[in-house]
Amino acid sequence: MDHEDRKLEVSAEAREAATLLVASLQDAFNAHDPDAISEHFAEEAAWATVMGKELAGRQEIAEFGRSVMDAMADSYVRYDVTRIVAVAPDVVAVRVLQTPTTRDGALPTAQRGAGLYVIARRGDAWKICAGQITFVGNP
User: Fold this and answer.
1) H or E element that contains 84
2) Cβ atoms of 116 and 81 closer than 8 Å
């Protein structure tokens, strides 16, 4: 078997890091803190919003967040990791279901989203290096 055809396994460390990163990102979003949100991204991150706007780098992600956060003051979300796939050592692709909620966690009938995040180790931390979100149907 060629080494490029070998299936990579998601390490326990990568699984835990990705799960904790997504949970922390959810907390930052629900706190409506664009600077805290941006800290989850690598300096060179590439991101596409649910509306298709492309953002390049942590600074641009933070600036975009600041520009839209007032309009999202009543927006809350629950992020559920639905799949993690190893891409390379210390790099995972993470599928995240994003369900809008109310402040108290109730589930309204608002449009859900699904994200695909590429998360990699950067020094001692794990960061989102690339990703995008798209709308998905409700169950």
Assistant:
1) strand 76-88
2) no
